[in-house]
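[#protein-structures] MJ: dropping DUF5777 domain-containing protein here for a structure pass
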Amino acid sequence: MRHFKYFPYSFLIVIFFLLSSAPLLAQEDLLNELNTAVGKQTDYTFATFKSTRVINGNSIEQMKTRQLDFRVNHRFGTVNGGIYTLFGLDQAFVNLSFEYGITDWLQVGIRRGTYRKTYDGSVKLRLLRQSSGKKIMPVSISYFADMAVNTLKITNPNIENTLINRLSYTHQLLIARKFNERLSLQLSPSFVHRNLVNSDEENNTYAIGFGGRYKITRRVGVSFEYFWVSNTAGNTDFHNSASIGVDIETGGHVFQLFLTNSTAMLESVFIPETKGNWLDGGIHFGFNISRVFAF
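AK: finished. structure tokens for DUF5777 domain-containing protein:
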């Protein structure tokens, strides 16, 4: 009879454990649903490069909505000037630029350069963004366009002093991939049109830029850049633009210190008209400083 006497208590204990485990099972189901949802999310790649420039050329990066990038680009003279020019430090060429993010996908910019006293305006449009998860995109792609005007005084009486003759245009497709937390690479097919050129030069220039960045520490990385120009091989006055440098991030500033054989910082000049030669010391020490403001 004792067996039947204690049966109700055993039954109540079983019911208690069943009720206690129900919330745990519900929580496990909820966690499974959350994990499934996370697996279906799209994770976008960010910080492929430290700034909107690899070195001279544009990177895939651009300003987000209502962000403003104030940039100072500086190039000294060539180091083969020796001690007389203090290895180029006596000379200087400067670019000042502002780049503003209208949306996360559209950036506009204005710039003024002392080399040939140029003014230019640009637009950068993000077409695709590298991502993983629900939506897989192996690369980021952006389109960059620039129009520049040369305001140097024309002293040659045989050249017509018109606005059309002073204009040049650049179009680039920026294709980049961040392979891991350290390595990023970019290809930049480029087209440059100059309305006025010398008789032995072509108005249209076709080039492919290749650049990359390798992250050493959280705030320091090395970068390189090379532009191969397809239709100036027979012109010994010009060389392909080649640069190597170090990127340093400190708070809201990004410093880039580098060596380059390009004097100009404007795409329609340094891509087709780089005159420096690395083999004879025709290289410049330069730096870029970038400060981003949010509004």
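MJ: nice. Confidence is low (pLDDT under 50) at residues 1-26.
AK: one more thing. The longest strand covers residues 67-78.
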